[in-house]
Amino acid sequence: MVKKKVTITVYGAEQICASCVGAPGSKDTYEWLQAAIGRKYIDDSIQYKYIDINESQSNEKHQQFIEKIFDEDLFYPIVLVNDEIVAEGIPRLKTIYEALDKNDVALQV
């Protein structure tokens, strides 16, 4: 059986979102997610990506999503599981775990 790869992408910035004062920064959230997910799931089938929204991206898909963030005034960090937005602003693990379960990521034993 071939394992399906899951990609978790976090779009964020060094500066904390103005509407998210008191929340951890995007990079901290990215690292926290990796640790939390690694405790619950076997994460060898998970690929993590961090995209800084203040940097120009060579990948057109990432650049277009960054433009969407600014055009629609989305709160960051934004967490995607396989290109589906699962969290905006302050992420909730329950929502992210539900997306991982939906993508058949195996639980730790």
From TrEMBL:
<dbReference type="Pfam" id="PF07315">
    <property type="entry name" value="DUF1462"/>
</dbReference>
<protein>
    <submittedName>
        <fullName>Disulfide oxidoreductase YuzD</fullName>
    </submittedName>
</protein>
<dbReference type="InterPro" id="IPR038218">
    <property type="entry name" value="YuzD-like_sp"/>
</dbReference>
<dbReference type="InterPro" id="IPR009190">
    <property type="entry name" value="DUF1462"/>
</dbReference>
<dbReference type="InterPro" id="IPR036249">
    <property type="entry name" value="Thioredoxin-like_sf"/>
</dbReference>
